[in-house]
Amino acid sequence: MKGAQLLRSLVLDRQRVVMRMLSARMSSLQENKLFTPGPLNTTPTVKSAMMRDLGSRDTEFLEVVAYIRRQLLKLANASADEFTAIPLQGSGTYSVESVLQSTVPRTSDSRVLVLSGGAYGERIAKICSYLSINHDVLTNPADTAVDLEKLKGQLSSAPYTNVCVVHCETTSGVVNPVENIGSLVKQILPDCTYFIDAMSSFGAVKLNLNTCHADFLVSSANKCIQGVPGFGFVLARTSKLLQCKDNSRSLSLDLYEQYANLEKSGMFRFTPPTHTMLAFKQALVELEDEGGVDKRAERYKQNNKLLSEGMKDLGFEQVVKSKDAGYIITSFRYPSPSFDFDLFYDKLKARGQVLYPGKMISKDTFRIGNIGDIHAADVRHLLTCVQEVCQEMSRDV
């Protein structure tokens, strides 16, 4: 026993030395602030959680997977009697495609309605095209939320088997009313499968799967829960998921089989992203320590308020009206037709501040995210940098 305790002590001492060396190395590098929709800044403790090696069949790792699945349901205010959480390797888009190709019936009369207001709604439609899934796209302007009256008419026009919507469309920052949409879908098409892409909102916007009438919801590790990239996850109504057996058009993205294997053995079917999941477990702990979704939302809202007011003072106009805007990411118009965004971006990047270019085809815009390990002091510093850069660019003209 004493020998085992000594060995464990030596291992822990070595880990402490490695962590001190890593910390010193990281402090010598410039830490960029990522004002983006993800990947995001993470805490040192989330990063350090990855500094362990666990086997995919280790009991300890299986306990991590089980913990993550339980906590995700808790965040969604979902009962384990009705819903299940299914982690899946890859980016969030892999999970989106997994839901589409697993849940849409392989029959000639199946048809998906995609509610699109930007690049991520268009991506869902593109996945349907690749999979030869019949689908229609109800498009709304990129700076406005889904029009419920138009949706009502569209739902009445065809017997859709599936309806998909992006909760926070990060093309612009628009937040769609997923509860109202879900209510309308189930009212008109009670048996229809309702799918929410909550990639950039889950963990920072309060959601209840039952009040949303959601059958499937997708998000990923590297968004508002503040983990690192490497896997997405699906929250599924179990009764709907069980209907998907043998329906998948793909081996690796078979959502039902991933669920069945997790239920049977606690394991992924194929090699899991062990280090990413260790980081995600730590991120979940830190979300709870912060006060849960409500408190994280409060911080992000404060970030958004400071940013919006500060950018307005500097002459930048927001694209999305307040009634449709969220607090995840904000789109701003170029202040003039001659505005050089590439130069603006490069000068801010040189100061360690990273923004996102715009994705709105019809407007010259750029985007600034409010999420991740970003706090009020970081937003104030960004605004100072923006002011300095604008002054420099004005002198250079």
Protein described:
By secondary structure, this protein is α/β, with parallel strands linked by helices. 45% of the residues lie in helices and 15% in strands. It contains 13 helices and 14 strands. A 7-stranded mixed β-sheet has the order 2-10-9-8-5-3-4, sandwiched between helices. Strand 13 and strand 14 (365-369) form a beta hairpin. Helix 3 packs across helix 10 and helix 6 packs parallel to helix 7. The radius of gyration is 22 Å and the shape is globular. The mean pLDDT is 93.
Which structural traits does this protein have?
14 strands; 397 residues; alpha/beta; 7-stranded mixed beta sheet; 13 helices; 3-stranded antiparallel beta sheet
In short:
The chain is α/β, with parallel strands linked by helices and 397 residues long. Helix content is 45%, strand content 15%.
Secondary structure elements and their pairing?
Blueprint lengths: L1 H26 L5 E2 L9 H5 L10 H17 L7 E7 L2 H12 L8 E5 L2 H12 L4 E5 L8 H8 L6 E5 L1 E2 L4 E2 L2 H11 L4 E5 L18 E5 L10 E7 H5 L12 H11 L8 H17 L1 H22 L15 E5 L7 H10 L2 E2 L1 E2 L7 E5 L6 H21 L1
Parallel strand pairs: 1-12, 3-4, 3-5, 5-8, 8-9
Antiparallel strand pairs: 2-10, 6-7, 9-10, 11-14, 13-14
Helix pairs in contact: 3-10, 6-7, 10-11, 11-13, 12-13
State mean pLDDT (0 to 100 scale): 93
> What is the string of SSEs from the N terminus onward?
HEHHEHEHEHEEEHEEEHHHHEHEEEH
Number of helices: 13
Strands in their spatial order, largest beta sheet: 2-10-9-8-5-3-4
| Biggest sheet details | 7 strands, mixed
Distance between the termini: 74 Å
Low-confidence stretches: none
Rg, nearest Å: 22 Å
Question: How many β-strand runs?
Answer: 14
How would you sum up the global shape?
globular
Structural class: alpha/beta
Strand content: 5-15%
User: What is the helical fraction, as a range of percent?
Assistant: 40-55%
